[in-house]
Amino acid sequence: MNILKNVYYRYKNSFLFAISAFIIKGLGALTLPVFTRLLTKSDYGILSVTNTVQNFSTATSRLGIQQSVLKQYEEYGDKERSQYLFSTILFSFIWSLFLLVIFVVINQFLGNNLFKGVEFFPYLFLALLTSSFSTSYAIFQSYLRILNIAKKFIALASINIILNILLSIILITQFNLGVYGKLLGGVIPYFLIFIYIITKTNAKFKLKYWLSAIKFGSPLAMSSIILSIVMMYTISLLTSCASLNELGLYNIGRNLGLLIPDFVFQSIILTYQPFIYRNLRENNISEIIRQNTFIIMGLFIIILLAGLFGKLIILIFTTKKYLGALMLMRLFMLSYIFKIIYFYPMLHLFYDNKTLLFTKIEIFSTIIFLVLVRFFIILFSIEGVALALICQEFIKAILLIYYSKLQMKQIFSIKALKSR
What we know:
Blueprint: H1 2-10, H2 12-30, H3 32-38, H4 41-62, H5 65-72, H6 78-110, H7 120-146, H8 150-173, H9 179-201, H10 207-241, H11 244-281, H12 285-308, H13 310-317, H14 326-351, H15 355-380, H16 383-404, H17 414-418
Helix pairs in contact: 1-2, 2-8, 2-11, 4-6, 4-7, 4-10, 4-11, 5-7, 5-10, 6-7, 6-10, 7-9, 8-9, 10-15, 11-12, 11-14, 12-14, 14-16, 15-16
């Protein structure tokens, strides 16, 4: 109980940021029963493909700049900060539009041969357009995080998700647009928020600030790009081996499997990541160990309970036709445990400016995934993706702990909790 009080009084803004995470994840989850009745399983199969393409586009557009803002913003003087923020937002958007044009040109050569049954226009084009506008949103949200401006953070997140849901429902039900309406309802809120951000942050801009942000964030972006390419390869395998209905089960199983742990984890790290950087600068390692142990224990219990009541979760959020995703959901939950364990060692490498080393670890673990996923898909169908991911995350955890030179007792220690 004392630990909970300490967390609240020391990091009370994290509870406000958690409200934002609840709005995004919570409302998305609460409306899932609506969309699973409005859309078909094949529609969710299409969303699996568009989400994967959007993740790739997002990684190549952002280039890790949202992470750079968290670290670099306070390193500039007061006069330079507004220029730094606007420059990173402006040039990131210009870069994302350039990439969008490249994707359109590439499509003229490849046609629709990459993903069976999913057309580039309008589905993939809308996914790419969404990632372009969302880049500015992500950078601005990082700025709000570093200054602990929680209320505005919550307001933007609320506007984004509520508009997304309302527009999607209207476009699906009133205009019979189906999955096209779902995608269109996602891009419009990001566009409106983009206009607000540009007018709010308007200042002198210099290319050097964007290049500086890229220099720090690009190794992180490279790992994200590689990961997203791997997922596109995985989805391409699934579209060649499975129907869109099975891809729909994959979409639901993956989303529900990551929903609860990701909701809790993302709520915490909004302020936990700056907290780790701050305490590393102050060499306050004992406080990091204490909080990290508390977080690992809490999230492990949450994942265990969610796995035990997996069938009930599916029936609450979807319908009986999606019960085939139960095993897949539990496997994705299991993979998240390793992510929780290696989060602090990963940030330790970032703090030491060893982002290139992290990229190498990411690449190596990804190669393991690529070797396993094709074999596992043949043996276990859609569940094979989750099994390959578990192996990848386990190997990544081992390597990150080893190269961060942290002992396990520096990551997780029951004694650290008792000493409080």
